[in-house]
Amino acid sequence: MILDTPIEYLKGVGPARAALLQSELGIYTFGDLLEYYPYRYVDRSKTSTIRDLDIDEPYVVLRGKIHDLQTVGTGRSTRLTALLSDNTGQIELVWFQGIKWIKESLKPDTEYIVMGKPTLFNGHINIAHPDLDRATGEGVTTLQYIPIYSSTEKLKSKGLHTKGIARLTEQLLRAAAGNIPETLPPSVVHKYNLPSRANAIEVIHYPTRPHDITVSMQRMKFEELFFLQLDYQYAKHERTIRANGRMFTVVGDHFNRFYNEKLNFELTGAQKRVVKEIRADMRSGHQMNRLLQGDVGSGKTLVALLCMLIAIDNGCQACMMAPTEILANQHFANVSKMLDGLGINVGLLTGSLKSSAKRKVKERLKQGSIDILIGTHALIEKDVQFADLGFVVIDEQHRFGVEQRSRLWTKSAQPPHVLVMTATPIPRTLAMTLYGDLDCSVIDELPPGRKEIKTVHCTDSQRLKVFGFMRREIARGRQVYVVYPLIEESESMDLKDLMDGYESISRDFPLPEYQISIVHGRMDAEAKDYEMGRFKRGETQIMVSTTVIEVGVDVPNATVMVIENAERFGLSQLHQLRGRVGRGGEQSYCILMTGNKLSSSGRERIKTMVDTTDGFRIAEADLKLRGPGDLQGLQQSGILQLKIADIVNDEPIIRAARETVQDILASDPNLDNPDNGSLKLHIIKNKRTLSWGKIS
Ligand code: ADP
Ligand code: MG
Predict the structure, then answer these.
(1) What's the CA angle centered on 168, arms 166 and 171, to 5 degrees?
(2) Which of 43, 126, 129, 469 is least surrounded, with the fewest CB atoms within 10 Å of its CB?
(3) Do the first three CATH levels of 253-443 and 454-612 match, i.e. the same topology?
C-alpha cells in the first residue's frame, strides 16, 4: 500500500526532514501526511490594502512589491527585514529564521502575495514570517483558496512552513493518484452521499473547486469519528460476547445488615435505580464497565459502598481508588465508620504510609484478610496483590490516566467489575465519544432536604462585606472555606497570594475567638491531614487552602465557600469547589471574588456559575467556552488527537457516526459482510481496540 510508505521516501523529504515530520507532527507515512489537514484557507482574491490594515485580523492577504532587504543585528538577534509596498502605503516584513534562504529566494521589485498575522511592534505594524507567493509569472498557483498548515519553528527552519508542507502534499497527491482506497463501506458512502476518500482528500489539500471544501471536510470528519466509534463499540461488543464476568448472584448478610441496621436514611429514587442497574450488570455473566455520573453530593459514594458489599457477599474483595491522599483517608474513615460492627475488614494503602505498614497491608490483602481496600495510586503498584479482586471503584476518574486504570485490571485473573465515578458531569458529545464503550448511569437527584446553594459575585472592593458575612455565619456555628487558585506555572506567585490572604484573614479573624486551618500542596501529607482533621472536627472555623480540597472533601457543617480570583478557575473546577458546601441541611453560599476588570470569558464563566447549579449545563458551557483542551482529564483521552473533527462543533456528525456504527454492528456483529471488509481490516490493524477494551 503506497499510503504506508515511510514519509522519508517522498520526493523532497529525505531523512532529516522525515525525522522532523515525525517528531514535530507525528507524520510517519504518506497516509499520515495526507491526514495532516490545513487549519484554514486564505482567499487570495480578498486582499487588504496596507493603509487599512487592522491588527485585530488574525490573518491578512496583501499584494505588493518587496524592497529594501536588510540584515540587522548580530548573533542570536540577527534578523532580516524588508519593506512591502502597495499603492496605499508600506509595512515591514521580518524574519528571524532561515534568513539566508529567504534572502536568496526573494526577488526585489516583483509582485508578491503576502499572507500573515499583522502585529504592532514599536508603534508600527509588521508581519513576522509571512507566507509569500509570487503574484504573477510562471509556476504561480492557480488556486484561489490557499490551504494554510500549521508548522513549527524547527520545521520552518528546514523550509517546511505552510507552503513547504503544501508543496509536499501536492507532490504526494500526484504520486498517490489512483491509490487512495475507500475506507468506509459502500452502503455508508451511499447513504450519506459522501464524496470518495480520494476525492475528499484531494479537495482539502488542493481545492480547485472551492465549493467542495466543506463537503470534503465533513466526509473526513465523519470518517474520523466513525472509526473512533467503531473502536469503542467493537471493544464493548467483544466484551459482551465474552462471557467471563463474575456472577454476583446473592445479596447477602453484609449488604442486608448494613442496609437495615446502619443506613439511617432512605436512598433517593435515583440511587435505588442505579443500584439496580449495577446489580443487573453484576449477575449478567458479562464483565461490567459502568460510568456513574452524578453531581457532587448526590450520593455516589454510598452507591459504591452498597455495591462493594454485594461483592463481599459473593466472596471476593473490592477496592476503591481515589485521586488524592486526603480523599482516600476520608473515604477510609467514612467507610470504616459506616461498616463498624459488621465484621468487614477495611484497609488503607497510600503512598505516605510507612513502609512497614504498607508491607503489612499488602500481606493481609494477599491472604484475603482485607475485604475492602481503599487507597490512592499506591493501589496500582505491581507488588499490590489481591487474593481475589472482584469489584473496583474508581472515584473521580478524571484524575486518573487511561494507562493507570488499565493496570488495576491486571490484578485479577478473571476481570473484576469496574465502576467509574465522576462528579464532573460530561457533556453529551464527549460522553458519546470518550465513553463510547462504557455503560452509563446517572444520579440526577439530590438527597432530600438539600437547599440550593446561593451564588454571588463580589469584587475585591466588597471584601469587608464578605468578611462581615463570614463572621455572621461563623457566629451561627458554621464553617467557611476560602480557596485560592494554584496553577503550576505561577506556583510561587500563587503561594504568595495564598499566604497574603491567610495573613489578612488572620488579622480580621483573630485568635483566640477564631481558629484557622491552612492547607496547600507544598505541605507534607501529615501536616495536611492534621489541618484537615481540625477543620472536619469543627476545631477551626475557617479553612484557607488551594484547590487540594476540590475533590470530594466532605464537611457538612461548612456553609460558605469563598473563591478568590474566581476568574482564573475553569467552570468545572468552580462547580467542584462549590459542591464542597451545601452538604448538610443548612442554606449554603458560594462567593466568587474577582477584581473589577474581567475578560469577557471570565465574565461569562462567573455569570454561568451565578445562574445555574446544574452540573450538566455547566459542563456544556465549559466545553463551549474553553474547548476540550482545557477540560480536566481529557489530555490522555485521544479526543484531543482528533485530526479534523471538532468535539464542540461537530455534534451532528458525532451522532451520525455513532448511529451508523451501531446499525452496522447490530446487523453484522462480526463484520463478516464483504461490504464491511475495510472495517474488519481496521479492527485487526488497530491495537487501540485492545487497550481500550481493557480500560475501565
Ligand atoms: P458524592 O460522592 O456523590 O459527592 P456522597 O456519597 O459523598 O456524595 O454523599 C454526600 C453526603 O450525602 C454524604 O454525607 C452522604 O452520607 C449523604 N447521603 C447520601 N445519600 C443520601 C440519601 N439518600 N439521603 C440522605 N443523605 C444521603
Ligand atoms: Mg464523592
Answers:
(1) 110
(2) 43
(3) yes
